[in-house]
Amino acid sequence: MLELCFSQSARGGLRCAQHCGGGGRKVFGVIVGRDDGRPATRKEIRQAQKQAQQKREALDREAIPLGGTPSDVLGLSLGLDMGDIREPLGEARRELLRRWYDGNDEAADQDWQETLESADRLRACGTGDAVRIWVDHTPASACGLLHAASLLKDTKAAVHVVVLPFWRERPDGVVETYLGWGEMEPERFGHFLSREEPVPPLALGAMAHRWEVLQKENAPLRAVVNGQIRSVGEDFYDGLIRRHIPEGQTKIANIIGNVLGQERPGIGDVWLAERIRWMLSTGELRMVREDKEMFYSSVVERT
Fold this sequence. Notes:
The chain is an alpha/beta fold. The chain has helices at about 10-15, 40-60, 90-100, 105-125, 140-150, 200-215, 240-245, 250-265, 270-280, and strands spanning about 1-5, 75, 130-135, 160-165, 165-170, 175, 195-200, 220-225, 230, 250, 285-290, 300. It has a five-stranded mixed beta sheet, with helices on both faces. The protein starts with a strand and ends with a strand.
């Protein structure tokens, strides 16, 4: 069984999920902070570590391993909700992804090569092969699913999807909400196998056709509107950005963080940063203090 997802974080989670549980994950990190900005006390740090350890042990107990090997986990982390999609595996897409890696060309090139290999493995599937696609509610995943359908429609492989639910109720009665598979703990992936559904060949063909339509439209941006992935203008998320530009001065990182944290639009920070650059170029925002090395640390204000 090949496992397919559309983000690097989901890919890492799926690989861990293959053999999770039983104390398999020995290392985990704990970040401790305070609202007032002061350093955490030793007591607070110890308490946070204890809570994290208890959560880790609980996850180990409920883990359902997926099985398989890391090479079975494929990723098409292409960010196809943004930019030109006429050639999703072409050089223009590669250069766009390089820009998003903020100068880390080595990591960008490694991920690109792995993406090309994943696409080749999907095209090479045939009768007797099975592909399980992990789909969530982000625009990138919705576009990725349609693109994957275009690669698989003529392969005769058995294709299944697992759609991430909007929420999950824990045994203690707490309701957890998810936007993308990248937010899911590896130990919990297996719990969603009951949601796995086959994709009929006709449905696969219809999705591939929808991808062709989106490619012909080739809008600067694609978004999920009323449950459907649609071509939209580049200013689609501008209203969300403006909603979180306060009176007075603020760091760009604060604006982006508030949009992602409070609005949960399902996109990454890269597009929001590009739109803030556009607002600066049009004079809607004024640069108060620019950080040439770290754009997000720059301070801006309304004009």
